[in-house]
Design a protein that fits this description.
Helices cover about 45% and strands about 10% of the residues. It has 15 helices and ten strands. A four-stranded mixed beta sheet has the order 3-1-2-4. β5 (about 195-200) and β6 form a beta hairpin. α3 (about 85-100) packs across α4 (about 105-115), α6 (about 135-150) packs antiparallel against α7 and α13 packs across α14. The protein is elongated, with a radius of gyration of 26 Å.
């Protein structure tokens, strides 16, 4: 093939044939290949059985392949956008349908709108968003409820405007959705009691806060006041109560975790986030001390195609430093990237973990 693509990686027949054998989706749109024995032409990632090399020719465009007398393959549809793009658009349509529907569409309706089978749509949706259609719908409704309550709507109005058919269904899910009673959330945490304490650790100032259900914040910084401001902004109407003797034991355990991360933290957490954030945070907690993964690798573990940026966003939203070890996520190649509590603290934590792992 002569200059089959503007991309230098596919300017030779050998390179194109290698891409076809690997069914490389990155080559889609860069060139096409025809099969003399079948009379069709395909995109490089076509899932059909690879033809004999002697029957294959390469083309710079679909028009060139058709001018040579070949017809488009029905299986890989080379005249349409790449499969990943078509699936992403189908998922986007499903998301818009979920967001605009008065009553939540069921899986069959969503799959039909996407032009897929029920099973295939469920798998594709989860691969692109990281969560199931049901979880996406629940997260969307939770967002609507939170927005309504923060905007001053009554609890009843917020419930029904978010699409809940009954208040009973909403209240059954309200704790996991809001992290507190709806009336308390509407009031910015009014009625909630959050115990907190600020101490010093080897990384600087550390604030530990907890509700009745568990630790809700571990914040680290250079000075105490910005940490207190951060906590206040999260729960503007909650009663913030200084530590008593019992809570100081909790703070001591958290500081012990900072100094020796491999020991882990045997305390309950009360962290609130979207369904996807919760999945990322859970995945972070199983990364062993002394180990790191890249954002792309963690996205792959979660089954999220191209989800490195979304994973990075969930790491940045983590409210409990070290206990949910977002410091163990790095760039491809091991380079350190942004860390909410400072790159040097991230470096220190990783070095400390590796040293302690070596001692063990």
């Amino acid at each position: 093939m002569r200059s089959a693509s503007p991309d230098h990686a596919y300017t030779t027949d050998a390179a194109c044939w290698d891409a076809v054998q690997r069914r490389d989706p990155a080559a889609d749109g860069r060139f096409y290949y025809s099969v003399r024995s079948t009379g069709v032409y395909c995109r490089p990632s076509c899932p059909s059985r690879v033809a004999k090399r002697a029957n294959v020719a390469f083309h710079a465009s679909s028009q060139e392949a058709e001018a040579a007398g070949f017809r488009p393959c029905l299986r890989c549809a080379p005249t349409q956008p790449p499969l990943a793009e078509r699936q992403a658009e189908a998922v986007a349509r499903a998301c818009r349908l979920i967001e605009s529907a008065i009553e939540q569409p069921d899986l069959d309706q969503l799959a039909q709108a996407a032009g897929m089978s029920r099973y295939h749509f469920h798998r594709v949706f989860k691969a692109h968003t990281g969560i199931t259609p049901k979880a996406y719908a629940a997260a969307h409704r939770a967002s609507l409820v939170r927005g309504g309550l923060q905007g001053g709507a009554s609890v009843t109005d917020a419930i029904f405007e978010a699409g809940f058919g009954s208040s009973g269904r909403f209240y059954a899910a309200s704790q996991s959705m809001l992290g507190m009673a709806p009336a308390s959330y509407r009031a910015g945490g009014r009625g909630e009691t959050i115990r907190f304490a600020v101490a010093e650790c080897s990384l600087g100032a550390i604030l530990v806060a907890a509700t009745e259900r568990g630790i809700c914040a571990i914040l680290i910084g250079d000075e105490a006041q910005p940490l207190l401001d951060d906590l206040q902004a999260r729960f503007p109407q909650a009663e913030l109560r200084g530590a008593d003797a019992g809570f100081e034991q909790t703070v001591a355990q958290v500081i012990g975790l900072v100094e020796a991360p491999r020991l882990g933290l045997d305390l309950p957490l009360d962290v609130r986030g979207t369904a996807f954030q919760q999945r990322v945070w859970q995945a972070l907690r199983v990364i062993p001390a002394g180990s790191t993964v890249s954002y792309a690798e963690l996205a792959a573990r979660l089954g999220v195609a191209g989800g490195a940026r979304a994973v990075a966003g969930a790491c940045a939203a983590n409210p409990v430093a070290v206990a949910i070890p977002c410091h163990r996520v790095v760039r491809i190649g091991g380079a350190l990237s942004g860390y909410r509590w400072g790159i040097e603290r991230k470096r220190t934590l990783l070095e400390r973990e590796r040293a302690q792992a070596g001692e063990g």
